[in-house]
Amino acid sequence: MFLTLKKIFVFDCLVIFYLTNNKLKSDYFEKFVARLEKTSISMLNYNKFFKLLTYGNSKEVYLSAGEVAKYWNDLGGKYDEKILQFIFYFPYCAQKCLYCRERSEKIKNCKEVVDFILDAEKEMEFFSSIFRNREIDYFTFNGGSPDVLSHNQLRLVLTSLFLKFKFKKDAVKRIEFNPTGVSSKKLEIVKEFGFNRISFGVQSLSKKALKNAGRPYAELETIKEIISLTRKMGLDDINIDLILGLPGESYAQFEDGLRELCELKPAQIMVYILNEPNRRYLSKYPSMSIETFQVSVEKMVSKFLKSTFLDELKEMNYVLVPDKDNLNYKYFALVRRDLSARAWLGAMDSYINISTFIVGKKNTSNIFSDLIYERVADFNTKDKIYKASIIDEEYEMKKFIFSSVESSRQLNVDLFRKVFGVSIEEKFNIAIKILREKKRIAAKKGVISFLGRNSRDIIIDLAFLISNMEKKSQK
Ligand SMILES: C[S@@+](CC[C@H](N)C(=O)[O-])C[C@H]1O[C@@H](n2cnc3c(N)ncnc32)[C@H](O)[C@@H]1O
Ligand code: SF4
Fold first, then answer.
1. Domain annotation covers residue 363
2. Nearest Cα to 97, choosing from 196, 6, 175, 212?
3. What is the mean pLDDT of residues 252-265?
4. Same domain flag for 264 and 311
5. What's residue 55's pLDDT?
6. Residue 45 structural domain
7. pLDDT in tens, 20-76
8. Which ligand is located closest to the Cα atom of residue 244?
9. Rounded average pLDDT over 440-464
10. What residue owns the CA closest to ligand 2's atom 2?
11. Are residues 273 and 344 in the same domain?
12. Phi-psi category of residue 247: left, alpha or beta, with phi > 0 → left and psi -120 to 50 → alpha
């Protein structure tokens, strides 16, 4: 009898709870690893796994806009550094790409866009008074596909938004477009509103791979023209998103594409490693199951790490972030050496106390160590329209650990202490000792490195660490 992935996952949960509720015994680690090794857990279901490991650190409630506003008034609670990120998330796309796990939707009609804008307007109006005395540090206009908006709609939304919210002088203001939806009029608006970073979702230069993924394709020539036009507008902080592992594109083709794009000298190329492809997508490739897909993607990553292309990168003035020894299976970036000081948000070293306010439905806002919430109904001030989780500090600690290790296989011990005011060794004393003894981690110069051979080993060690937090803070 075959178990479905869902059933296996539920079974995994029970195993973890069984193990974590037992006292640490000498063979505990071996039992923990042996059990998890037989199961489906891998970086592929990272999100569900994180939910499981933070079960107990959050409590679900429904809140009204006024109740959410009270949490924002006390932004970040006791924390000194209170970084505020504002995201305007436009949830519609011209089509739904088959690999996409975003909660975006294919647009059905113009009315949908108009309704969305009017609804977002009401939410922005309400919260603008809450942020009256608070300037925004990071602003992102993303989606979905913001380029689905006509230039008039884009101008309308931005005019209203920039009237309602204040931004720090040196705030990062970022916007994202699919190259097939860019026009010079839209780029002019981007310039007019002072955006200082623009991202193009190229994804691949392989026509076949994008066609199979149901995504419109932009020729290299078109991308060149767009980049040149963007530069003419005075915007040089350009990012290109690519995906490694799209079925239909070989490693050699991917590398050729990457080389061509480096020639265009964008400030950064962000390479995402294809994650959780759905069954409908993979069914186009009868020989490919989720498992064979994962093996093929990991092979591509090792080819990249062994490739002489890494030497070429230096000649082309790019650095790899994180570096070769700390690469993981989610994403990496090529950052132009002369601009690398402007590290991208989300990199390990830039993890600080960030709270994110997101306008619109279908996305999750968070108030550091206090609240995570998502709007589930049209905006109004009467009803409890936000589905929320009240979270604790331990939740944030686990998130810090998970996201750091996921992106770089490392934990910055000093940063953890800086953010939480307690040392990581104190919070995870016994688990760290055991993992060191078993040579699964190594600690050196303020950094704990995870030594697992692959993403599966690492997620098991992470699970072991996170599920063995000391119960009482020893601050
Ligand atoms: C938040 S998504 C939204 C991007 C934008 N809507 C677009 O299509 O250009 C940001 C990036 O994640 C990457 N991405 C999307 N789905 C992915 C998946 N299943 N696995 C890995 N990367 C993915 C793509 O490179 C994409 O540009
Ligand atoms: S355009 Fe972006 S958000 Fe929309 S479906 Fe494609 S990848 Fe997802």
1. no
2. 212
3. 96
4. yes
5. 78
6. 5-57+409-466
7. 544 555 577 787 777 776 665 554 466 767 877 787 888 999 999 999 999 998 775
8. 1
9. 85
10. 144
11. yes
12. beta
The predicted-structure confidence for 363-417, as pLDDT tens digits, reads as follows 899 998 899 999 999 999 999 999 999 999 899 999 999 888 877 788 889 889 9
Res 92 pLDDT > 90: yes
Q: Are residues 126 and 257 in the same domain?
A: yes
Q: Percent of the chain, pLDDT > 70? A: 87
Q: Do residues 263 and 240 touch, judged by C-beta distance below 8 A?
A: no
Verify that 123 and 204 share a domain, yes or no.
Answer: yes
Pairing label, strands 410-412, 447-450: antiparallel
Identity (one letter) of the amino acid at 380? N
- Residue 28 included in any domain: yes
In tens, the pLDDT along 100-116 reads 888 899 999 999 999 99
- 443 falls within a domain: yes
Residues 352, 400 contacting (CB under 8 angstroms): no
Q: What is the helix (H) or strand (E) element at residue 163, kind and residue range?
A: helix 151-164
Q: Tell me, yes or no, whether 109 and 31 share the same domain.
A: no
The sign one gets for the Cα dihedral 74, 76, 82, 83 is: negative
Name the residue at shortest CA distance from atom 8 of ligand 2.
100
Give the model's pLDDT for residue 446.
86
pLDDT band at 227 (very low <50, low <70, confident <90, very high): very high
Given 311, 329, 350, the domain boundary residue is: 350
Atom of ligand 1 nearest to the CA of 97: 8
Question: How far apart (Å, rounded) are the C-alpha atoms in residues 320 and 326?
Answer: 10
Q: Are strands 354-359 and 318-321 parallel, antiparallel or unpaired?
A: unpaired
Q: List the CATH number of the domain containing 148.
A: 3.80.30.20
Cβ-contact 198, 238 below 8 angstroms: yes
Domain co-membership, 53 together with 90: no
In this prediction, residue 45 carries a pLDDT of 61
What is the pTM assigned to this prediction?
A: 0.87
Instruction: Report d(CA 173, CA 276) in Å as an integer.
Output: 30
Q: Does position 11 have pLDDT exceeding 50, yes or no?
A: no
> From the CA of 214, how far away is ligand 1's center (Å)?
13
Regarding beta strands 354-359 and 83-90, do their DSSP bridges make them parallel or antiparallel, or are they unpaired?
parallel
Q: How many Å apart are CA 379 and CA 391, to the nearest integer?
A: 23
Of 243, 281, 358, the residue with max ligand 1 atoms within 8 A of its CB, to mutate for a pocket test, comes to 243
C-alpha closest to that of 88 among 389, 362, 384: 362
Residues 33 and 104 in one domain: no
Number of domains in the chain: 2
